[in-house]
Amino acid sequence: MIHNNNDRLYKFYVLSVTAPDQDVINEILGHRSFQQRLAIQQEYKRLYNKEIAEHIGTVLVGSYDSLVKTLFRKPFEILANDLYKGMKTIGSNYQIMTDIICCCNNAEIYLLKKAYNDVLMKEDPKNYRQRPLQTDVLQESKGAFRLLMEQLLKGERCGDDIDGCTISTPTSYGYVNRKLVDDDVRELYAAGMGQEGKGDPSIYISILTKRSKYHIREVYEAYHKKYGHLLTESISRKFSNPLRNALNTLLMALIDLRLLLTCQLYCSMEGLGSNDDSIIRIICLRCE
């Protein structure tokens, strides 16, 4: 239901004048849930035969235009649009792939692929069948980072019950295979801080993309207890960017997603200028 019967009238007025009243737009969109914004969008289409987001693009500019359009997109539509746009931008494609793909679970990867296909149907209708998300991501990446993206997009992480085992132990995070946890801890150390020079990315990628969230949380705690330093420290010391950032993002998304999003939001605003696309994406996805 539309929160206010005058919403559509306000919107029509705002979008039909040369100098749109941003205060009115803020008042309406800033106090509506996504379902209410969707109702406004549908009613606007019915009354005026125009897509409200596209009409907005004719009167608003810059980041404000991007923000308002994003408020009318579904969650995975937001992610897919940002991925498509980000992978076309030289210098920022690795960061956008990290921020989005490394934070998705199996179900979210599936939905992201579908949403990306919808974006391609609109942006590249002639070639969208030959350009699934995997193809574009692998084309834009290389080395160990490319391997990490490839494994994540397969969506083969174990479920959050028991990691394919018959011997399980209850923990504060759920049931996990204690022997497998101990084995993973040893392997991660041997592939990182336990060897000279750079770490072995294949071990980290294999474990961090296949084990369940509960299992990884238990590995994180057990690693710290056994070796006296955090797994994130090992990653930071033994790997270089963009893999280092991607592995740490993946790990922290499994350990504490709220903390990760807080850090991402802070980094988007830190220093000179700001990463408006990142700020808009995080706020619009999490505002409810």
Automatic annotation (TrEMBL):
SUPFAM superfamilies assigned: Annexin
PANTHER family the UniProt entry points to: ANNEXIN (PTHR10502), ANNEXIN B11 (PTHR10502:SF102)
Pfam families: Annexin
Family of the protein in this entry: Belongs to the annexin family.
MF terms (GO), sorted A to Z: calcium ion binding; calcium-dependent phospholipid binding; phosphatidylserine binding
Origin superkingdom: Eukaryota
Keywords: Annexin, Repeat
A cellular component term, taken from the record's GO annotations: cytoplasm
Species of origin: Schistosoma japonicum (Blood fluke)
The keyword Repeat appears for this protein: yes
The keyword Zinc is assigned to this record: no
Name recorded for this polypeptide: Annexin A2
